[in-house]
Design a protein that fits this description.
The protein has about 425 residues and is mainly α. Helices cover about 80% and strands about 0% of the residues.
């Protein structure tokens, strides 16, 4: 039995997200020996984390436009190849000083910024509507799988070799992926030489769009409340997500006297604190996607499904994050981190898939623009966290700010989100 080509597109896109995140989070663990070796302060570490997103914001916007206009295969493929090269070059730049490492992190962000709008543009043309939410959820699970792989394998490589080899080995994975991507994927279903006539017929009838988009003004986008709701939700989600992607290993490693957990990098407990919540995140992301598709298939209103699952994700995560600083037991902290990720995964059927409801032909552009504006949180959040740690040594403030931001994002989305088509 032949595997449908669209499943191969999903698998390769999942791997792209996986590689995107292992190359993004490896520095969250590698920064511990790098900070000791190069003598960086906490605020400098925050600046290093944030510098990545300066490049990311820029190409996320233009990447969505280019993917809609010229095809997601080309934009994602060459973007991944470029950022893999920049990953390999990171140690050489680190040895040339603080500003050199900032520069290579910006370049890495420029390469990675095209990732999400590119595969969203592909899915708008490849994936039937009733499969859309679970396909996006499976692909987004590459975030959690890549994060846990990046954390754990980085820890192992540092323990047995050195932090430099983290960047060399991870960068080469992208080069291997690019070879198979070029050989097996096309931007449009009708271009693929091995697609069956029945699958092509299904996609043409059921996919959100098969057309090239017309021009749409930025003013029209930024004056549309449902689109603003997605953008605000993206910003608030990113605030919490990217602070924890950057700082979770440091929180676990920081001394108890400074509000951290005081667990050594090579400890089995360190690995468990990273691994277990991430496993729950993967399961919940996929389950959230299947749940959303199942509810929609049972004729529940799309907007109700979006709002309910999004509210579980935002408000549930906010509550769990608020409680973490009050816990002393590692068991309770792991449990709350797991609950945070379970709730967050349920939001897979919320704001993250709402773009194609508003304008299927513009999916890549909508993801790119909302994502770029939302990525401002990824720039500001780690900076704020770095300065809070340097000035106050308080992890509690960081957790409670994240909690408050999520509550605001959940309320705004609940009030103004829509599943009606906004852009023709």
């Amino acid at each position: 039995m032949q595997i449908p080509v669209r499943f191969k597109v999903i698998f390769m896109s999942f791997l792209a997200v996986f590689i995107c995140y292992i190359d993004r989070v490896n520095i969250s663990v590698a920064i511990i020996p790098m900070q000791e070796q190069f003598g960086w302060s906490e605020s400098q570490v925050g600046i290093i984390f944030s510098s990545f997103y300066l490049g990311y914001v820029f190409t996320m916007t233009i990447g969505g436009f280019l993917a809609d206009r010229y095809g997601g295969k080309v934009i994602l493929g060459y973007g991944l190849l470029l950022w893999s090269l920049f990953t390999v070059l990171t140690p050489a730049f680190a040895y040339n000083g603080f500003f050199a490492v900032l520069f290579i992190r910006v370049l890495l962000g420029l390469g990675e910024g095209v990732t999400f709008p590119s595969w969203h543009a592909l899915y708008a043309r490849w994936i039937p509507f009733e499969e859309r939410t679970r396909s996006i959820a499976i692909t987004n699970s590459g975030i959690s799988v890549g994060t846990v792989f990046g954390y754990l394998v980085t820890t192992i490589i540092i323990s047995f070799y050195s932090w430099e080899w983290v960047f060399y080995s991870f960068g080469m994975l992208g080069v291997i992926w690019f070879f198979f991507w070029q050989r097996g994927i096309t931007s449009y279903p009708n271009e693929h030489p091995k697609i069956s006539s029945s699958e092509l017929k299904l996609i043409i009838e059921k996919a959100p769009t098969s057309s090239l988009p017309k021009k749409i003004s930025i003013f029209r986008l930024l004056s549309n409340l449902p689109f603003i709701a997605i953008t605000i939700a993206t910003f608030c989600h990113n605030w919490a997500l990217f602070i924890f992607l950057s700082y979770l290993p440091k929180f676990i490693n920081s001394p108890v006297s400074l509000g951290g957990l005081g667990i050594n990098l090579d400890s089995s407990i360190f690995i468990l604190l990273i691994l277990i919540p991430s496993i729950f995140s993967v399961i919940s992301l996929i389950a959230g996607g299947f749940l959303a598709d199942s509810l929609i298939k049972k004729k529940y209103k799309v907007i109700k499904v979006r709002k309910v699952l999004n509210s579980v994700g935002f408000f549930g995560s906010a509550f769990c994050l608020f409680l973490i600083p009050f816990q002393e037991s590692h068991f309770y902290i792991i449990s709350l981190l797991c609950m945070t990720n379970i709730c967050s995964g349920m939001a897979a059927g919320g704001f993250g898939v709402n773009h194609a409801d508003l304008g299927p032909e513009y999916t890549g552009s909508l993801v790119g623009i909302s994502g770029s504006l939302g990525m401002i949180a990824a720039i500001i959040g780690p900076l704020v966290a770095g300065f809070i740690l340097e000035i106050t040594n308080s992890w509690s403030i960081i957790f409670h700010i994240c909690s408050s931001v999520l509550v605001f994002g959940g309320i705004f989305y609940l009030a103004f989100a829509s599943a009606e088509k906004q852009f023709e």
